[in-house]
Design goal:
- Helix 1 packs across helix 3.
- A hairpin with a 5-residue loop joins strand 7 and strand 8.
- The chain has two domains: about 60 residues; about 60 residues, Arc Repressor Mutant, subunit A, CATH 1.10.10.
- With about 160 residues, the protein is of the alpha+beta class.
- Helix content is about 15%, strand content about 30%.
- The chain is built from three helices and eight strands; from the N terminus they run E-E-E-E-E-H-E-H-H-E-E.
- The strands form two sheets. Strands 4-3-2-1-5 form a five-stranded antiparallel sheet, with no helix packed on it.
- It is elongated, with a radius of gyration of 23 Å.
């Protein structure tokens, strides 16, 4: 295996052959611990067999090309920039207003409102989608935020 990874670097399994599925799964992450004829990776929370028991620290494996495992470097997540599109849309919805894609374009929130709403939902906000029809019968979505009271209950 080529030395495109450095000792201490985090890696993730991105693809496997049928043979490698016995011990590994796509998405497993680990740390490169060394080189030899193959790459040595210690996987996080490695489980062996089908017992489901986690053996932290016992997941060190030597991986070469014959294993059928494809690795990729784990990238650090980019920090969220304050005042971005999600924050703008959230501020609008927190003001108690509803928002459609057409309104979002006019207000300068961009053309991918559904993707922004999906991201906000992933961050834990409760956003309701109401499907409506325009005067020509074309469907569109209207988004509104469910506010929480001081006690944490939904209003």
């Amino acid at each position: 295996m080529s030395k495109k990874y450095e000792v201490g670097q985090r890696v993730r399994i991105t693809a496997l052959t049928a043979h490698a599925y016995r011990h590994f799964s796509v998405g497993m992450t680990g740390t490169v611990t060394g080189y030899g004829d193959s790459l040595c990776v210690e996987f996080d929370n490695w489980t062996h067999g089908h017992s489901g028991e986690t053996d932290v620290g016992e997941g060190q494996w030597y991986i070469d090309k014959s294993e059928g495992i494809t690795l990729a470097k784990v990238r650090k997540p980019r920090p969220r920039k304050a005042g971005g599109r999600c924050d703008q849309v959230l501020g609008f919805l927190l003001a108690g207003k509803s928002l459609t894609q057409g309104e979002a374009i006019v207000l300068g929130f961009g053309t991918r409102l559904a993707a922004t709403v999906h991201t906000l939902k992933g961050r834990g906000h409760t956003i309701i989608t109401t499907m409506k029809e325009d005067s020509f019968g074309h469907p569109y979505a209207e988004y509104s935020l469910v506010k929480r009271s001081a006690s944490g209950k939904r209003k």
